[in-house]
Amino acid sequence: MFQYSLILFAFSVQAHKEGNPQKLLEMNGHTAVPHSYDYDLIVIGGGSGGLAAAKEAAKYEKKVMVLDFVTPTPLGNSWGLGGTCVNVGCIPKKLMHQAALLGQALQDSRKFGWQFPEEVKHNWMTMTESVQNYIGSLNWGYRVALREKKVTYENAYGEFVQIFPLATNKRGVEKLYTAERFLIATGERPRYLGIPGDKEYCISSDDLFSLPYCPGKTLVVGASYVALECAGFLAGLGLDVTVMVRSILLRGFDQDMANKIGEYMEEHGIKFIREFVPIKVEQIEEGTPGRLKVTAKSTKGNEVIGGEYNTVLLAIGRDACTRKIGLDKVGVKINEKTGKIPVNDMEQTNVPYIYAIGDILQDRLELTPVAIQAGRLLVQRLYGGATTKCDYVNVPTTVFTPLEYGACGYSEENAIQKFGEENIEVYHSHFWPLEWTVPSRDNNKCYAKIICNIRDNERVIGFHVLGPNAGEVTQGFAAAIKCGLTKEQLDSTIGIHPVCAEVFTTLSVTKRSG
Amino acid sequence: MAQRLALRRLLAGPGRALGTSAARPSAFNVQDGGDFQERVVNSAKPVVVDFHAQWCGPCKILGPRLEKMVAKQEGKVVMAKVDIDDHTDLAIEYEVSAVPTVLAMKNGDVVDKFVGIKDEDQLEAFLKKLIGA
Lengths: 514, 133
Fold this sequence. Notes:
The complex is a heterodimer.
Chain A: H1 2-18, H2 21-25, E1 39-44, H3 48-59, E2 64-67, H4 83-88, H5 90-111, H6 124-148, E3 152-154, E4 156-161, E5 164-169, E6 174-176, E7 179-184, E8 188-190, H7 198-201, H8 205-208, E9 218-221, H9 225-236, E10 241-245, H10 255-267, E11 271-274, E12 276-285, E13 291-298, E14 304-309, E15 311-314, E16 318-320, H11 327-330, E17 354-356, H12 368-384, E18 397-399, E19 405-409, H13 412-419, E20 424-431, H14 434-437, E21 446-453, E22 459-466, H15 470-482, H16 487-491
Parallel strand pairs in A: 1-2, 1-7, 2-3, 7-17, 9-10, 9-15, 10-11
Antiparallel strand pairs in A: 4-5, 5-6, 8-16, 12-13, 13-14, 18-19, 19-22, 20-21, 21-22
Helix pairs in contact in A: 3-12, 5-6, 5-9
Chain B: H1 2-11, E1 27-29, H2 33-41, E2 47-52, H3 57-71, E3 78-83, H4 88-93, E4 101-106, E5 109-115, H5 120-132
Parallel strand pairs in B: 1-3, 2-3
Antiparallel strand pairs in B: 2-4, 4-5
Active site (chain A): 497
Domain FAD/NAD(P)-binding (chain A): 39-375
Binding site for NAD(+) (chain A): 222-229, 317
């Protein structure tokens, strides 16, 4: 019944024109709609989720439009089609992380016999140009893909006006479009601190990956994976990096692992200032980079400290782009505090013909593959008669800090909370990658941990690995966990030698045994 | 794109100059749709159109090589360069998917085309065919 009243609202404009609201009450969502819309589906946001959904819908020969627009950063930076992941997220991040790893590999290589001058330098501009060139080819690739699938693309800002979305392009020209259904996939943007000098002098991840000058001595504010990954590769490229943390590292992640990540970074030259927050950023000198003075206050008392840096990178969180797209005009409810959109397990908002996917969803994971999967399955349900829902359980992730961290399933603290400490068994072990032996790298930092549910056949409910290629290692185990992997099955799996991942086939020491 | 374009211009060296040192440069950058209509579609001479992109490595090799071979044809063929990010509508109109894409145009029609890098001999043959046919 709830759905009927909303459909009435949606068609109310038409009803007034036709003067017959009673007729509409008899319709349900499946009978043919009497008026024609411009599009079957309008997708607002051309990122991971939006593009996947649009391309999928085109397969069912639906008329689809994608509206993608990037509001420039406070420093004026913008980018092309593809969303956060492609332009200012996963892709450039991983490439720059790789640049840093290659620097380390160069050092290791001497022990393997490679000979070259003592001092090896890094050129920020060369790296950034290569990364941006690759991103440019991806932007173009997405445009070609949309064109080939006959999806209409507009580089324009979409917002709802009554029940129709209104698109405004760069030149301020407004066009009105109608559609049978809408998909909101607008993603998020970095949050600012709200202190003097933040927008004028600080950069965010939106600016870092195309910065046209080397950032120099950098202060990274935040303890998110964005903060730690960026701090990690900047230090790996040879820069002086400090991380300012308000409280804990990697909130929401297994804290045992988070602390190990932090320790490793600290032991490898990254400075941490804990329990402080910046209260003011001032410019000492203009330049590329310039010199900035940061004043910070303790979270535990009245202590105030100051520091000088070339660049201040803010990575304190991201806010959903849901507040300025007219959702109130069409009645879509959002969480007023966080800006996130609550949806049911079919990614439907409270308005039946408006759906949402990706980072803007409340209580869901902010990951590209999740958005893509949700988008594809949603479209298959809408147009292909499918019933499969997106499975948000046991989604694997990887944090690309200098010592990479791969995880799937429960963190130790969540497992204890859900199942009770007496019902879980944690197996763990340090390991020393063979490639690290010759160059004498740390022999007690890489770490493997699995959490098993004793009450359920010692089912593996949590997988954690700290070490090189953590993402590659974790992917396969995520599939095994999805199949219900138990400790016994893991133990009966024969390892591949000599690789890091084989440690998981021989775990015997438990945390319980001390 | 602002930051990215600033970055590219900063890095662009003198090697990217579009003309040759000859008094009459044989290659020009298309400014807009109207410019394309006037100097390519309505051109009395045959035109090779080089669709390229800033982010495309092979384009940076093909571009100068093609310009050199065009210059050798002593003014019998003109070369137009189109940056597909700046002139996406033109690129879409001529169905460019990958770059570099080079079109041979005569009297406003596309009479020949290739995608990717070619060596000097292949380019010479391509140009001679356009001029001769």
